[in-house]
Amino acid sequence: GAVVSQHPSRVICKSGTSVKIECRSLDFQATTMFWYRQFPKQSLMLMATSNEGSKATYEQGVEKDKFLINHASLTLSTLTVTSAHPEDSSFYICSARNQDYGYTFGSGTRLTVV
Amino acid sequence: RKEVEQDPGPFNVPEGATVAFNCTYSNSASQSFFWYRQDCRKEPKLLMSVYSSGNEDGRFTAQLNRASQYISLLIRDSKLSDSATYLCVVVEGGGGNKLTFGTGTQLKVEL
To answer: Which chain A residue shows the shortest CA-CA distance from B97?
Structure first.
């Protein structure tokens, strides 16, 4: 089946620093990657939709200058949390849609900003 | 009103029990529906798609009522390993493929 590899699985960073999260589609080409955020006991909330070779589409209320998304190839999308603050601490998950296997999720990144 | 609503639970049931979860969605143009399972601190995993005619996969039965904008999941003969959060997921129409998640219903199966 389709596999999306997400790294790192867990990261702790200091307030004010930037953190990059990578998602790779291992055995299929992901023209579109979705980035979600999940706070404790809450639902996954779509942050942005990343399209290969073009600008990402951000959901209302998500700062595009703070959450930088790059989708430079058909197998790699990255999310960079810039100038992270404690309120950015969350579980970030990517997902790609594959024609044959539907939606596949990465294993998630647990970000803690101290 | 939330786009996808679920009872958060938790539902505490004994092993072997039958348990049902419900979900309502607000967008009548929604096209596809799924149940996902999420274990603590893990990514969601697809449990099953939901079709208008109703569908069954082993101990799991899913049903969709488009007129009432209502989705259900029935788990029979529940196992300890069924303990997880069950997410109702709706795909919007219009070709955007955007998934909208409910907040999830927590199930705890006990001895």
So the answer is: A97
